Amino acid sequence: MIVTTKKLFEAAYGKYAIGAYNINNLEQAMGLFRGNIESQAPFIIQISKGARSYTHKSMLEAIIRAADVLFPEAIFAVHLDHGDEETCYDAINSGFYSSVMIDASHEDFETNVAITRRVVEAAHAKGVVVEAELGQLGGVEEHVAVDEAGAKLTDPDKAKEFVERTGCDSLAVAIGTSHGAYKFSGAQTLRFDVLAEIQKRLPGFPLVLHGASSIPQEEVERINAAGGNLKGAKGVDEDLFKRAAELGVTKVNIDTDGRLVWVRVHREYLKEHPEAVDFRPIGKIFMAEYAKMIAHKNEKLGSAGKLPEIRKMLGLA
Ligand SMILES: O=C(CO)COP(=O)(O)O
Ligand SMILES: O=C[C@H](O)COP(=O)(O)O
Ligand SMILES: [Zn+2]
Ligand SMILES: [Zn+2]
Question: Does the ipTM exceed 0.90?
């Protein structure tokens, strides 16, 4: 069942975080639903602009709606990830997305407030919730280099003003992470001091952590052993998720770790089976491995095992 993140965040706040997983295709969708049902967790499906154009936005919608029927127990939000204003309105008016992110964090503060307010007004009129962003991560999506990311940390005082002026339902904050496989140049890690100051000014308000893939070194080593070349890849320590949840993070965004599973499975299989001509055995291995990754993440986030209570909270059997 598709729900907004509002009730999921209310249930999780201060205790655990909900996994927000980017998907683009059939195999990721199947692995995602299997992994969340196996670990009995509510979850958030993240659809980026890149995912909407990978095949077609209607194709991905059809896949997810079919999965919803195949996995009737699942409780999830459908969320536009890193939307611009135009894409947000398309998602809000689609009757499919229950949540959108308006990412205007690269604009100046007043412009970000103005754009976010417009999206909030349109979204709330349709019962859709809004994630906004203040501060900038480094990495593949943001407009700053990874080592500049520190300079773009979220200002706690500005965060309070931003939320009050925009009416957004959750806030993506920059506390040292970056998108992609190469985070933390040097020994940097999550700036819990900044996060604590934001929570102090916005008690009970849902915060979002982008760039939260952990880039498992075992995964990197297997990819490189099978012909890959990921040098210096580094991510977020999964054991920090629980502390982040205590400090108000209710949504943790994970995309790159799923991509690493795909790369490892395909490189290893094709290396071990040079005679392969059928893609289905590889696809089946990927779906199983992706589901395993999702279930593992939910254990680390603390959302594993929470599905029954969420269903009960929603008045479902
Ligand atoms: O923030 C993300 C999606 O919005 C994903 O971050 P990663 O690149 O760390 O997976
Ligand atoms: O950072 C954004 C997400 O990882 C989505 O990435 P993408 O735009 O390559 O689909
Ligand atoms: Zn951004
Ligand atoms: Zn992101």
Answer: yes
Starting from the CA of residue 178, give the closest ligand: 1
Does 81 qualify as catalytic in the annotation? yes
Q: Is the CB of 48 under 6 A from ligand 2?
A: yes
Q: What angle do CA 61, 136, 127 make, to 5 degrees?
A: 40
Q: Are 213 and 236 a contacting pair, CB within 8 Å?
A: yes
The predicted-structure confidence for 4-14, as pLDDT tens digits, reads as follows 999 999 999 99
Is ligand 2 within 6 A of the CB of residue 22? yes
Ligand nearest the Cα atom of residue 48: 2
**Closest to 299 in 3D by CA, of 214, 229, 221, 233:** 214
Residues 79 and 100 sit within 8 Å (Cβ to Cβ): yes
82: left (phi over 0), alpha (psi -120 to 50) or beta: left
* pTM higher than the cut 0.80: yes
